[in-house]
Amino acid sequence: MKFYEKIIRPILFLLDPETAHIFTFKTLAIFDHFAFLNKILAKFFSFSDASLKQKVFGLNFENPIGLAAGLDKKVELTLTWPAFNFGFAEIGSITYQPQVGNARPRLWRLPQDKALLVYYGLSNLGAQNSAKKFIQAKNRFKRKNILAISIAKSNDVAMEEAAEDYAKSFQLLEEHADFVVINLSCPNVKNFCGLQNKILLEPILAKITSLNTKQKPLCLKIGNDLTKSELDDIIFLVKKYNLAGVIATNLAKDKSRFSLKSKDQDKPGALAGQPISTRANEIIAYLYKNSENKFKIIGLGGVFTGEDAYKKIKAGATLVQLATGFIYGGPQSVKNINQDLVKLLQTDKLTHINQAIGLEVNHYHLF
Ligand SMILES: Cc1cc2nc3c(=O)[nH]c(=O)nc-3n(C[C@H](O)[C@H](O)[C@H](O)COP(=O)(O)O)c2cc1C
User: Fold this and answer.
1) 184: which of 19, 49, 237, 349 is 20 to 30 A away, CA to CA?
2) Quick check: 34 pLDDT over 80?
């Protein structure tokens, strides 16, 4: 931890954030290409404990901590994520059409706020190219982790044609995923968040569930700025279409809700990291209270430590993810979080992580 924080991170943080990201991923790609290097890497970060293992969506998770969507948009490190102790990784978001996204710069660090401002606009390789990369990875060596693939609407496709666009991505990518995430909330794309509205969302769910003949678990990823009626509509539709889970939350679009301190706070984009965690926890608790145990919740937003992850689990999340926390915390962070989770369970005299789910749901109030 200290080595990353004291040496590597200060060097990476001298670079523009996207350049640092590209450089890191190019360096790490070597572990995705050679199984023996991958195994060596895993030795540094391995940690396993029976109290963290769970069967969720019919899949065996080694631990509840996953990589959030957005870091591996270009399908570069699909085989490497478990070496950092991630119990699962979400790749994407991927759209049917390849997209360059917004012009650079489009990512800013807000260090005083332990946050990031993200303005990528869904840049990715497109579903066809991404599918090829999943096949290449599969042919290199056997993947050990659980992989989710996040699909989103192509920017140039009208809202009314969203269902068809999602369906094409789903058909190309579903076979490479253990579960599929329908991302409804891309705050950096004009009008995109509107898909969280019932009238636009229902045809997407109807279409994808009708194509889901292999019964792949499906999750919806939702935003941090939802109104009560949007959230209620989502809960209604998740139950109606028997979806496996809801991922809460994506970036916060409305930055005026937060009192930020960092110098780049006025740059365009939506917010990730610590400031969005409270609202994310409230949304998780609201979902949990209204889930009637019919779907699971994957919680994220501002997870940096075991304590942060545990809060989300106690609010009602079965699994947890992080993006910003991994960028700030570095390669050791997931192992640390998992180790701390085991200690926190012991402190609470619990023997398994599933005993903690929803324990503090009544501490949160939303709307
Ligand atoms: C650089 C970056 C890119 C992101 N891109 C996506 C994306 O393509 N799809 C998506 O569903 N979420 C995306 N997100 C949102 C994250 O998955 C996550 O929901 C959000 O950052 C809150 O988690 P965090 O506080 O741990 O970062 C992105 C986040 C970051 C930091």
Assistant:
1) 19
2) yes
